[in-house]
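As noted in the main text, all predictions were made from sequence alone. Below is one such record, for Phosphatidylethanolamine N-methyltransferase.
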Amino acid sequence: QVDVAAMARLFGYVDVTDTGFIVAVLSIAFNPLFWNVVARWEHKTRVFSRVFGSAHAACYCLGAVILLLNCVRSHCFTEAMKSQPKLEGWDCHWAYYSGLAISAVGTLFVISSFLALGFTGTFLGDYFGILMEAKVTSFPFSVLDNPMYWGSTAIYLGWSLMHASPAGLLLTAVVAISYTIAMLYEGPFTEEIYRQKQKGVKNK
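Prediction:
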């Protein structure tokens, strides 16, 4: 069971009205909303493929924007942690190295996921009509679904522990919630794209 009193003490360190914290929350929530709206608009209209001259060029452009937004999000996350107090009991070697290990595992999942999917597979290429031949089942997809999202969440969790930051832990929870909502929308939509592909193949 969750120790409510411990949670209350933990988040008593967090000023949720701090401007930096609010900006971090908004940047976390904005990113998946942005790429889902843009990618679905592209899937429906093909407007970006026409503007950039090809689906691949449009996908690479969206990927670059997503990477830039992720850098902004990480910066806002770090600045929000710096502006809020640390948890004294966690400002020690064991917490730091635990956080480092968790971040390393998260980085492994993110990098291996990218290598398995490729650039277009990672950055919503299927919404641009750039479909993969088969579902990827190799590591890290053999270990868990959506390893890119969970790996990214683990990196933020580890980063928060390394900084002994209650604000970072709360922001990590916001990251996890944002990704969970994104997965609820992306999963069925992507499956439908591939169902339509298979239907088109069968009708030929």
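The radius of gyration is 19 Å. The chain has seven helices and no strands. These features were considered when defining construct boundaries for the mutagenesis experiments described in Section 2.9.
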